[in-house]
Amino acid sequence: MFRSLLLGFILLGFNIFAHPVIWKGGSVFTLRHLPRMKRVNLHHSLTHRWALGFHFADIQDEKLLFFQNNFLLKRFNKPSSQANIYGFIGLGLAPRFLKDENFHLGIQGDWESRRFYTQFNVNSFFYDKIFVSTTFRFGVAPYIEDYDGFHTWIIFQANQDSFLDDSAMSSSMLVFRFFMQNYLIELGSDFKGLGLMTFMVHF
Amino acid sequence: MSVLKKEKFYSTALFFAYALLLSSLCVHNFCLLAKGEPSKTKTTVKTKKPPAQKVEKQKKVPVEKVSVLQVVNVTVNGMVCSFCVQGLEKAFTKEKSVKSVVVSLSDKLVVLSLKENMDISDEKIKSIVENTGYNVKKIKRSSVSVN
Hints:
heterodimer; A: 12 strands
């Protein structure tokens, strides 16, 4: 059942992406659809600093599957804000229908308060090509809600996706993020009509 | 999918995003108006239901008897996102000595109501908070008398 759902999401062109590491014993499932890439992540946090899981990436019809290690390298907890530095290492799995000898390296830094949110990340995918995706985000919450409220964020996102032997594609988009309890949805689009969609659930 | 269909698809998605944003703002403002005050103190309470037998026993206790419940206020650093703070609530709710957990992002507080005659040590609280990725700033205990 779950496998069929996962396959269904992939075929629909969605993509999984997640909070890299959450609380000890927590799991995250994320689908993310970006202009040049679709990603699916499912991982489980063994500690609040280390999560293991699977990561599927579809980069312009190149399908890659990784056994994923996510690390919280450093966290800064302040009374009214939090900052994090994460590292990602994905080792390519080699089912018959997928490419072998691939791996993923990434790093992410973020800072957020209850009003503002910033994030910078670089993800590199090494297979028979090298694909690098760089993203910067800045978000504002139009209103502040407490723990059990319906949260809304308006986010400006700048992207650069590039193959090392190809021209880079840059885009900027407006993204709306909504979350309540353990569900999160993001919808966004750039001015050329290329869109972004994210679905995330914690459990 | 052709380029035109893609554009239409994403335009529709963006339209829904705008609609969702506007409706969330309306709902939020409506809630504020209904309350007549800002929702900064809004909190969530998750209470474990006591076993049925225990409830029956409590009914038989004379009204004059006073029980003392211990309340622990834990001030936590880094608690800014409700989506990420759920781990704290889940971890404390699992504890045997904890009757209910209240999280307040605006006060940076996790309020634990303990079960009668039960306690939780400061070390245990710190360990739970750190395992969910946060830091304890202060722990304050108080007692509440209940008839």
